[in-house]
Amino acid sequence: MGLKEFVTRRIIQIVVLYFAIATMLFFLFRAAPGDPLAAYIGTGFTQEQAAQIRATFGLDQPIHVQYWKYMTSLVTFNFGLSYITGDPVWGIIQDRIWNTLVLMGTSVILAYLIGVPFGAYLAWNRGTKRERFGVVFALISRSAPVFWTGLLGIWIFSFKLGWLPAGSMSQPGVTYSSKLAQFTSPSFLRHLILPALVQAFYFYSLPALLMRNSMLEVMNEDFVDFAELKGISDFSVMLKHAARNALLPIVTAFAVAAGFAVGGSVVLETVFAWPGLGREMVRAVIANDYPVAQATFLILAGLVLVANFLADLAYGYLDPRITYD
Amino acid sequence: MSDQNKTALDSESNVDALDTELSTWRERQADAWRRRLAFLKREPMGLAGILILLAIVLVAIFAPVIAPYEPTETDYGNSLAPPSAEHPLGTDSAGRDIFSQLVFGARPALQIGLLSAISVAFVGMNVGLVAGYYGGYVDDALMRLVDFAYGIPFTPFIIVLVALWEPSKWTIVGAIALLLWRQTARVVRSHVLNLKEKPFVKSARTVGASDRRIIYRHIAPNVLPLVFLYGSFAIAWAILTEAAISYLGFGDPTAVTWGQMLQSAQQSQALARDAWWWFTMPGIAIMLTVISAFLIGRGYEEQLNPELQEP
Is the CB of B283 less than 8 angstroms away from the CB of A145? Predict the structure, then answer.
């Protein structure tokens, strides 16, 4: 099977998956006990007023009509209005999606920049005290919940040392002409450092431990022995022959990590009051703002699927033996 | 030598043989156990994990004996007290004893961790066994289900489920179990694909063993170590997830959990008020429990060496 055919098939699969996940979400919300508008329709409302509100949000229509409208919204991005603010949902999401992507992108890249060399270093030092200590250290950062290391980071770097802001994304009252202008402003970068580092401190352990395992496997292969026999320096053997081939499983793990990062945004963004999709979702779920909650969830799910797809492609690109079948 | 003597000798040597056979059998059994437990000696990390987990289990069981106060007992005259002889780890803003809350918090953490791990292992193993053994349409359908589970963002899904239904630990366990089986299923399936081509499976089929018997008597024991491994990782993920859910405010409001302690610490401005004993201790408790599960899994994994992946 050629590359083109593989890509087309995967895209079709992903679209089908996406609609399946959306359907599950639709019924999950409809099957939940309680009235979705309970928070909205207070006790002082008359029957007519309540009915009118229901009609505004399209909740008076039969379920199949609601489902059809919901599914078309996946394509048109017309997710309706927020129950709480009455604003269009897509507007709310559009503003936050970039904030999430920048924060999570930075932390995943940081995690890989730290984790991959760290894992290679552990493999080079197989059997030493340094290696054992390094593995335990990686496991410790994997066991520490992000919201806790986040709190510690805020306490130390904001409250004690006063070096970095405690949360949010920019100074209050400052406006920017565009998202790009905001993301490149020094104030934004200062706000980005702490949350990105805290998340990276959690994430780096996955590429590190994988890289270690993978390197150890590759180091037993004949071509590594052969390179050694040729008289190539240890460092060069490790870097050019072993590390390069060991990277393969780490690339696929990148997608899983990215997917996890997307889901993890709900926690990280809440700790740092970062105005992204995850925090918006938590806020919406607490406030029973169903249209926003559903739409943010769908966007997060879409990001996970895209990450998985990119990993498939990268995997095939890096390993010529993969024939896409 | 007469015939009689010969038989006597024979029977004697038979008894001897039986004897040595028995003792070698016993030795072999002991050997097998020694081998099973040998990884502890070779893997001090695994041993450390078991010891930590054991200690936490004991704390959870004997919580009422160990805790000096009721975890929910308030004492507003004594709020935010730093560690002292009276309150070994200080108090929170409502004057509740931090140490007692930590001790009682071990209970929901372990319950959720173990229950989730058991359900994840059960579902993941069966899906993997059936998909790998039957292949064809069954395999396709089940693997699309795995893809489906992989496409769902983990923490957001659990938040939605827990928020829409009731915020109890059962809902949390159910929500975790609904998604986390995906990895176990995938790994078990790929091993079953190999195993079912092995001679012992083929010969079992030749002598007429039923599919169910082949799956559960012949194949399942071979994938159990893997299931155990991913089960131990599931304990870790479940505890971390439950803590995050409670921290975000979706937990059972009446329960005393480590995540909830951290949530109320942040909401009551413990950071600005410098009440470090309040927000450091619950995190350490979570970390110790989670790392014990990781250490056990990892020590065991060095024996098996499959790929270590995110769930």
Answer: yes
Sort B50 into a burial class: Cβ within 10 Å, 0-12 / 13-18 / 19+.
Answer: middle
Which of A157, A159, A266 is the best mutation test for B, with the most CBs of B within 10 A? A266
- In this predicted structure, the answer to whether residue A261 has a pLDDT above a threshold of 90 is no
Read off the amino acid at residue B252.
Answer: D
Residue from the list B157, B244, B305 with its beta carbon closest to the beta carbon of A145: B244
Read off the tokens for B185: 């299923």
d(CA B27, CA A235): 48
Indicate the pLDDT class of residue B287, thresholds 50, 70 and 90.
Answer: very high
Instruction: Give residue B310's pLDDT.
Output: 38
Given a cut of 70, whether residue B9 has pLDDT beyond it is no
What is the value of ipTM here, to two decimals? 0.85
A112-128 average pLDDT score: 86
**Cα–Cα distance for residue pair A214/B163, rounded to 1 Å:** 40
Residues near A217 by beta carbon (within 8 Å), at least 6 away in sequence: A246
**A128 vs A150: CA distance, rounded Å:** 32
DSSP output for A250-273: HHHHHHHHHHHHHHHHHHHHHHTT
